[in-house]
Amino acid sequence: MAPLDFSTPTLQKPIRMSRKRRPEVVVISDLHLGTYGCHARELLHYLKSIRPKVLVLNGDIIDIWPFSKRYWPKSHMKVIRHLAGWAGKDVQIYYIPGNHDETLRRFAGFSLGSFHIVNKVVLTLSNGQKAWCFHGDVFDVTMQHAKWLARLGAIGYDILILINRLVNFISERLAGGGRISLSKKVKDKVKSAVAFINRFEETAASIGIEQGYPYVVCGHIHQPVIRTYTNSKGSTTYLNSGDWIENLSALEFDGSEWRLYRFSEQDARQMKAAPDEEQEPGARELFDHLLSEFNLRTAL
Prior knowledge:
CATH architecture: 4-Layer Sandwich
Structural class: alpha/beta
Largest sheet: 7 strands, mixed
Order of helices and strands: EEHEHEEEEEHHHHEEEEEHH
Distance between the termini: 41 Å
CATH class: Alpha Beta
């Protein structure tokens, strides 16, 4: 495999939120609906601000690994209903199952109207270029050879997310502070995690170059980025849509270029100002939920 030139991430103009934007393509991944870490209300606020022609759900949409009917709030169901509404309005939706919703891979090839379940998809964009979209867990060694280790790691990650949600609840409601991401801080500090992310990007970009795709679009590693890679065989733009656990991000193609969307403080203010019939859980209720989930995880 030819060595790659690690260029700096492509500089992107900030996406300005308007009442209803109409990007050509939107890619979201790693929502992990059904878990405490999912920021479903923020995601729904974002979805209501856009109407894409094509939506790619690039894996780990519903987290089936730890899925429990004990935690499925209204906000998570509202996301599903909103996406279903898009399918009924001829938005082309491609659902690419990931490792956390891999059960759906047995239904690859299923289509119902504008909704399709696929293992990967190649989009021909309006500028004539092709974007190769897949989740990316195929490059994760633990998923291929030690799935039990991956599941164990997922349990530890979920516990960290549970603690993080409680910390943020206290920070925002009681201390008047902002959100923090413990898991993101850990990954940013641990060299092995950084090395894994670099290998993941390099592998995906190298294969994209060999296959002749100008764009390679992934999820899985929760690292939103747009970066150009070059080797002796050519170049490609590697894109990752990030997640709705830590980064609250998405990819958008507007007909001429790709951009990263990130949920901002302005979005948060707009969301808080909008009416919402779902009541936020109180401190005691949230703590009881988290404690119950923690006991369940540690008992496995």
